[in-house]
Structures are given as C-alpha cells and as structure tokens.
Amino acid sequence: MNQKQETFISVDIETAGPIVSEHSMLTLGACLVYQPEIEFLMTLKPISDQAVDAALKISGLTLQQAQADGLAPEEAMAQFATWIANNLPENATPVFVGLNAPFDWSFVNYYFLKYLGENPFGFAALDIKALFMGATGCSWHDTRSSSIDKQLHPTLEGNHDALCDAKYQAELFRLIYQQELYHRPER
C-alpha cells in the first residue's frame, strides 16, 4: 500500500466573533509543525461590520485596523494556499493542526471554499485537545491549554497573536506526540 506523506501545519486565527460567515477572520498564522521557522502570517479585511466586543478584546484587534492593514479575503486565501503548496514535499498531504481545531478550521474552510472554491486541507482537522486526551486519558476539562502546559512544560505560550499561537500549538503537538510514542504499549 502506498501511503502519502503527511505535512502537519499548525494554524491559528483571530476573529471578530464566533459565527462563520457573519463574523470576520481577522488574522491567520501558520507554521510547519516540525519546522516552525517556516511561517505564514496575514491580516484580512473584514467581510462584515459585525463583531463581538469580547472577541476583539481578546485579540486586541479592531475592524478598522483590519480594514486598513488587511488583504482582501480572495488575495489572502490565495497567498495562504500558495504558501501551503510551496511548503509541501511532492505528493504530500497537508494536515491542519489546531488547538480547538474545529473553531479555527471552520473559518479557514469557509474562507477557502467561498473565495477559492477548494480547501487544500480537505474536510478534516487534527485537534490538539483531542490528541492530548487520547494520549493521556485525561478528562475533557483537562484539555485546556493551561492544563496541558502543566503536564508538558512547553517553552512557548499562547498570547492571542495568530502566528505566536500557531508556533505554541506546534510545540504542544510535538510534545504530545513524543509522549504518545513513548507511552505506546509494545505490540
């Protein structure tokens, strides 16, 4: 059986709120999980004027900043798709990795499909929270990043900057995956 090589890409976003298509994705950061120095960061122009104050407060972004500094969504997603393609070995599959991946992936998927017609990641994402739960047998409550940090002691930390968070997530993924391999029973 010929299995494709997988390239794990850590992706983090900051948004103007939680509803895909109503709230805007304002920033997107990404890096290769095993080569985090290979990175991508962009700000996007808002797709609406709808925002949740708490979401903007978390990221420190404003719709006005994003409008002034951001790329049109079509251009932004085209650049991200090109970055993904340029950083994949031949015949490799990109794997979207995120901390609470369903949230981030849903926005990225929507933007790729709406503005480019296809999502290079396909229809699935690898969630670090679920990976940690499976690797450690912990409760769902203990998959918060603060709980994961206490067990794995990463050198980086999340700060709601999309690129910094993508690199932090990449480190968490590597630490969890190493732990899982270490604790895997002999077969």
UniProtKB/TrEMBL annotation:
Keyword tRNA-binding: no
Any GO BP annotation: DNA metabolic process
CDD domains reported for this sequence: DEDDh
Residue ranges occupied by any Exonuclease domain in the UniProt entry: 7-182
A Pfam family recorded for this sequence: Rv2179c-like
SUPFAM superfamilies assigned: Ribonuclease H-like (SSF53098)
Keywords, sorted A to Z: Exonuclease, Hydrolase, Nuclease
InterPro entries linked: Ribonucl_H, RNaseH-like_sf, RNaseH_sf, Rv2179c-like
Top-rank taxon: Bacteria
Protein's recorded name: 3'-5' exonuclease
Taxonomic classification: Bacteria, Pseudomonadati, Pseudomonadota, Gammaproteobacteria, Enterobacterales
